[in-house]
Amino acid sequence: MGETHKGHQPGQPSRHDLPLPPRLQGKLEHFRERLWSVKIAEGALAGIIGLGLSYLLLFSLDRFFDTPLPLRIALLLAGFAVPALGLPLLWHRWVWRQRTLAEAARFLQRRFPRLGDELLGIIELAHHHPGNTSLVLVEAAMRQVDERAGAKDFSEAVPSHAYHRWLGGALGLLLVAGLLFLLVSDAAQNTLARWITPWKAVERYTFAQIEPLPATLVVPYAEAFPLTPALTGASEWRPPSATIHLPGDTELSSPLAAGGYAFSIPPQKENAALSLRVGDARETIFVEPKTRPELTALEAVIRLPDYLRYEQDPVIPVRGGTLSVVTGASATIRGTTSRTLAGASADGETAAVDGAGFSTEPIPVSEPLTRTFTWNDIHGLEAKSPLQLKIHPVPDEAPDLFAHQVGSKRVYLEDEVVTFDLTANDDFGLREVGLEWRALDGETTAPSPLLGEKPVVAGDPEKTSVQARGTFSAKREGIAPQSLQVRAFATDFLPDRPRTYSPTFVVHILSPQDHAKWLTEEFAKWFRTAREVYEREQQLHEGNLALRRLDSDDLDQPENRRRLQEQSSAESSNARRLDALTRAGRGLVEEAVKNVEFDAERLESWAAMMKALDGIARERMPSVADLLQQASRAPGAPSDPAAEAEPESTGEDAPATPVEEKVDEALAEQKELLDEFARVTDELREILSSLEASTFVKRLKAASRKQTEIAASLHQTLPDSFGLSRHRLTQQTRALAAETARTQEEQSRAIHHIQTDLEAYYQRKQEPIYKNVLDQMKDRSVVSQIRTMGQESLLNLGGRSIAASEFWADTLDRWAEELIAAASGEPQQQQQGDSKSLPPELVLRIMKALHDEMQLREETREMEGTRPAFAPDVYASKVRPLEYTQSDIRQRIDEVVTDIQALPGGARTFGKEIQLLSLVSDVMRQSRAVLARPDTGAEAIAAQTEAIELLLQSKRNQSGSGGGGSGSGNSGASSSGGGSHLSDIGPDGEAGPVGTETGSNAATTTGKAGRELPEEFRRGLDHYFNQLESN
Fold it and tell me: What pLDDT, on the 0 to 100 scale, is given for residue 1005?
């Protein structure tokens, strides 16, 4: 048995081992080294093959798709895993485990079994020989084995066939890689970079190279869109077609055309991924559908021409694809879209972008033009279609002007104020709105020389609409009484633009005398209409009497019941006609109140008659109509024969039926109102006669004063011109002579009118006093004589002219005095026993002050509207007359207060009126102080309004219940309420405007309101309602 030495590892030599023969040991060591190198080489080749296969596999995969990062890392790890794991394993298998000679001999045993056994034996003996074994024999055995081993080639036992296979594979892979680097170096190098550094974002190389495509493509929502991938110029492969794979297993194909592929992608509504394949190139495009950027607002900032004087550029919204701009302006177009923009353009020119909005450069507008606008948002989406904006230049239009005369009057006193409501509009701005007036040339409205004008409202460059009230006062403007054409005008800021005019209003400005004559004529017309109403009422009364004469049975007949209804309707219609006539008559009284030619007592009587007629129209006549209506519906006579025979047995008159009772009541009521109507008519006739006579007196007195004035003016020139021939007269004297001739010609015509009017009046009245004056005028040829006086003044016959003028002044005055007796029929004193109401003349003065204050307020308002148009000194000069007017009205109120206090017991009886009027005076004083600053603003208007309200309150305090229509037989001019009838006239009363035809249905301006229907409509409605009630 062998002996194993302590601490010795098997197979390892020790100092106790026997040495092997050197040759044998060398051969074994050489074999072992050879085996090590072959196996390590095989491992290295396997590692090369693993790495090569990993590289080539990545190269191949990259040809079909972009190898993902994890797979590239896996391939790299797998390739390096072969040498990293294989070499250590091979070293352990073939180096570590074959590190002893015994293991080398054991491996040789596979190739040389017998020799291998011998080698193992001697190696065992060398290392583990027993102690009793002969060393000589052992060495001899070693020599013997060494000799046999010497004839063997141990390299044959080295397994080299696998080595050659690994070597061939490695060389093949290297050859392939070399060829790749030689033939497709870019692709090979790209794959090498992607293989070695998979963590880097190295873009995959493709033979088919396409232009870069966005990773995410925003496309229009639910719209087909194009996709056109294009090959680069460096592309080594140009595939004949390309494909795109859509969601839902849809695939599109497109052929190569012009270096690219044109795809039309179907509409998309949801986010999706598109897979593009072009040869070996692969792209994934994420599609995000979004709505297009829509235009939400479009506006134009207009830079207007300088003459329009706008401080800020107006902004106009654009609608309908068209924009109208005044000629000469420039427009900056601003748009707002639904999404932040990346760019915008107008006709190819870049527009400024700010967020979701864009704006263009100013576009001059002098002729029609069209601009095309496009825009795209931050996602690259454009508008579905470009915006075509048509820009039209338009001219600066002239202002539009509407004027309306307040009230229907056409005749005014010279100190009255004519009021107009003016409305003006302009497309850009109004410069001025005003009134102008011209003389009316005869009966035509042909243009005549301008007499004057006044601004009503000062405009402003940016004031496009004006509503104002304009006033015209002939006296304030210094216009003599005459017929005028008044019209409003408006101007804008366009240079040299003619004015825009309203239709012309014809107003007749009369002197107090002519106005009194006109009112008298209107009153005569009104009186004739009143007589027609009275006569119609008499006819109705006769019809009612005829019905009453019928017996009971006939009265119960249907046709007679219908006649009762018709009589009731006719009575109602006549009442309405009288009511309208009364309102027109009150309007005449209101006009007369303004005229100083009418005395208070006559106006008071006139107003009392109007109040009496008002009672008849509103109470008495409707009562008769109601009784007749009741009679038409009352039950008839009883039908019982016994009831019919009873009256015959008694021998007494049969009792009246209900129908007859109602008819009797209606007849009695109608008889009383006819008596009252007749009495009022008689009194009105007396008033009319007095007015007509006083008119002749006033006209003759006026003519007399005019002759006196002519004589005075001629007398002033007499010392310098007496006895001179005409050609030696000074220019001033000749001008005065011509003016005198013209005046005398006018006076001749005026006196001719007086004479013809007086003759017509005499033909109607047949009173001797008028005949006497008329004969004198004819006998003395006053008309021709005065005309001759005018002609003589041209010949410088001053003395004769002065004497003749003085003569005719006296003669005309004498004729007026002769007529005074006819005009002296003084009306009855209305309130002789009433000490609790103011005398009519004081009430009349209060009413005139009220009227004047209201006119002053309108003029103050107008002046405030024109204030910006005047320089401060001009404005002050124009306000000064208003201040003087306010002072004059206040002075008149103070005089009224003084006269009230002078009445018997005035301070005690009229303390309330004195206190109220004193307050009015104080408020007017405040108003005057404001106007004196000068200031026509709200403070002045407020003070004047307060004065007006206080005057209205004073007027209402004097308003009594009036008389007339009471059936008591008292005079219609009496007043049961103790107030002045004049207080019911004018503002806060029921007077209507005065028309040219006094018998018409006059509409009211204050007081009662309501709709006036035509007579035939009212009659039909009355009949309809009567039938309805009877059924």
Answer: 34
